[in-house]
Structure formats: C-alpha cells, structure tokens
Design a protein that fits this description.
By secondary structure, this protein is α/β, with parallel strands linked by helices. The protein has 2 domains: 2-143 and 304-336, Quinone Oxidoreductase, Chain A, domain 1; 148-281, Rossmann fold, CATH 3.40.50.720. The chain is 28% helix and 27% strand. It contains 12 helices and 17 strands. Strands 3, 4, 5, 8, 9, 16 and 17 form a 7-stranded mixed beta sheet that branches. The chain has a 6-stranded parallel beta sheet with strand order 12-11-10-13-14-15, sandwiched between helices. Strand 13, helix 9 (239-248) and strand 14 (249-257) form a beta-alpha-beta unit. Helix 5 (144-156) packs across helix 6 and helix 5 (144-156) crosses helix 11 (287-298). The longest helix is centred in the middle third of the chain and has 13 residues, at 144-156. The radius of gyration is 20 Å and the shape is globular. The two termini are 19 Å apart. Bound molecules: zinc ion (ZN) (2 copies). Residues 89-93, 95-96, 101, 104-106 line the site of one zinc ion (ZN).
Length: 341
C-alpha cells in the first residue's frame, strides 16, 4: 500500500507503507476516491499543525471497497462499496449517553485527529461504514460526506416545504445546503460575493444575491413580501454575514450556524429578543444524515457531477490541493487512489 503524508508547509510525501490487518470490529478498505475539504485546505495552510501533528495522513471525504473484515463484523462484506462517517466517538460520555455521539465530548475526527483516507488501504471501525447502492459510483460516493453535512444542517434548522431560505456563503457546503433545501421544497436564495459561485448556484436553479453590490436586506424583503427569511444558514464565517443574518431573518425565524468562525463574531442579540429568533448550531452529521445523503444521490434527486472540478491521482495530490487554493471555481477536487472503474 501507499499513503500521502502531510508533512507541513503545503507539502505531502507519498510513500509505501504497511496495510493494517483489521482487528475484531474493524474493516480494511481499498480506498477509491477522496475529496478535498475546506478543513483539509486549512491543514494544508499549516494553521492546524498543532492539532494534526504532521507527518499525518489526512483526508475524510472518501469512498472505497471492503477488502478484509475482522471478527464479528456483520454490517458489510468483502466487495461492498462503502463510505466512512469519519467520527470516532467514545460511547461513554454524557453526550454519547444522550444519543448525540456525533458531538461526543471526546470526539476524534478521523483524518484530523487520527490517520485519514489519503492512503490506498485504510483500516477503520466497521460502525463508521455506510453501504453505497450499485448505482452510486465511487466518484459520487466521495461527495456523500459533504452532502451529509448539508443534510444535517437542514434537519437541525427544521426546513420544510414552502419556506424561504437564505444561505449566506456559496462555497461547496453552502451550495449543497441550498440544493438539499430545494429538494425539501423550500424557496432558496444564496448570498455570495464571487460571481463564479453565484453562476454555479444559478445553474442549479437557485436564486442568488451579491451582498457587496446589492442591498441584501432589500432584496430579501422584496423576495419574501417584507416577511424576511424563515431560515438563514450562516456558511461564510465572516462578520458581515453575522450582521446580515439577524437583519434578514423573519419574525420567529431560525438561524443555523454552520461556518467555523476563526474570531468570536459580534451577534445582534437585540434582534433575537425583538423577533423571537432561534439560533441553532450544526456540527458534522449523524447516522441518518449519511443515509439521507446516499439516497438523495441514488434516487437521482440531486446531480452532484458538476461539483467535481478535478480528479488527480494520489501521486499528484499536491497539484490537487494547489488547484483548490484561492480558486472560487473549484468546488470539489478529488484524489484517486485506485484505477477508475
Ligand atoms: Zn469535510
Ligand atoms: Zn462520547
């Protein structure tokens, strides 16, 4: 087997390694495709070195084929096409006890805190696996994880058909949130500064607003007949978006915080009192979000092919990362670990 180790300073070292025989409850996977996520880009830029402790094998948006199963594994069999829900939870803390293992108080995120998917052979706990149906390719499978993030956001915000939804931030996750909201029957508008990304949203049948050159408050008011947005997703991570989210929310509106803000933002709490707003945090995903993501792709309800902006082999993992660096037209770069089937 071979693995790409992130060694710090925008660099990877691809080298031969030893595959790990699965212990009881574990499965060894032949990795198919791995997507590059915003978090991986942060790691690439060195800002998470303290947490990832390089050299580290990163990557967590993947698809693969079951190659070997350990004792007691009965949810998958050799040859199954699968994706990994990259959460390693303790099942012993109060959060896990309450059924919220995805926000376990001792949560380890695979591919950040522990070795990830940029390796041809990856050994993981069987409980992390979800099976892909035959009509979902391994390439599309690599998009299940980010789509599951969007499914979780939509379920946390309790989006229902007919509601007016504004997504602030049109990066990959914002675009997926918009599409899942649309699939739910909501009316959706994406606020995004990049013209390229606005065009991407429009091609997917989503309305857009340019928050720099347009008055977003006026645009949303006109669109909603002065009501405001029933649900606002903050997916951009910048202060101006936090200023806007409380402005454009309807009375009794819900605001869902998806972005990871690097600085503590200032939030207009007065608006929460005045309009009886609700604020909901949304982090990663639960089991059912992965299942929903897989069925949205399998049913053909969502066509995610336009999200794949490039596919590079693992030998060119550096090029794959460089292609995403500050490039608004890049939605998802995939790295392939095996010959395409
Ligand atoms: Zn991700
Ligand atoms: Zn726990």
């Amino acid at each position: 087997m071979f693995a790409a180790h992130y060694v710090g300073d925008k660099s990877f070292d691809v080298q031969a390694g030893q595959s790990i025989k699965p212990s009881a409850g574990e499965v060894r996977l032949d990795v198919g495709f791995v997507g590059i996520c915003g978090t991986d880009m942060h790691i690439y830029h060195g800002v998470m070195d303290a947490r990832v402790s390089p050299p580290q094998i990163i990557g967590h948006e993947m698809s693969g084929i079951v190659a070997e199963v350990g004792d007691g594994v009965d949810n998958v069999a050799v040859g199954d096409h699968v994706v990994v829900r990259p959460l390693d939870y303790c099942l012993a803390c109060p959060a896990c006890d309450a059924g919220h293992s995805h926000v376990c108080q001792n949560l380890k995120f695979m591919g950040i805190d522990t070795p990830g998917a940029f390796q041809s052979s990856w050994t993981v706990k069987a409980r992390t696996l979800h099976k892909l149906p035959a009509n979902v390719s391994l390439k599309m499978g690599a998009l299940v994880e980010p789509l599951a993030v969007a499914c979780h956001d939509i379920s946390r915000a309790r989006v229902t058909a007919g509601e007016d939804v504004v997504v602030i931030g049109g990066g990959p996750i914002g675009q997926l949130v918009a599409l899942v909201a649309k699939a739910k029957g909501a009316n959706v508008m994406v606020s995004e500064v990049s013209e390229t990304r606005r065009q991407f949203a429009e091609k997917n049948g989503v309305k857009t607003v340019d928050p720099v050159n347009e008055d977003i408050n006026a645009v949303v008011n006109e669109w909603t007949g002065n009501k405001g947005a029933d649900v606002v997703f903050e997916v951009s991570g910048v202060q101006p978006a936090v200023d806007v989210m409380t402005e454009i929310a309807a009375v009794r509106g819900r605001i869902c915080m998806v972005a990871i803000h690097s600085q503590k933002p200032q939030v207009d709490l007065f608006k929460f009192f005045w309009k009886e707003l609700e604020l909901l945090g949304a982090r990663v995903y639960e089991h059912q979000d992965f299942e929903q993501a897989i069925s949205l792709i399998a049913s053909g309800e969502l066509d995610l092919a336009p999200f794949i902006s490039s596919v590079n082999s693992i030998d060119h993992i550096g090029d794959a990362f460089a292609s995403m660096d500050g490039n608004p037209s890049g939605m998802k770069a995939l790295v392939s670990l095996h010959e395409e089937k």
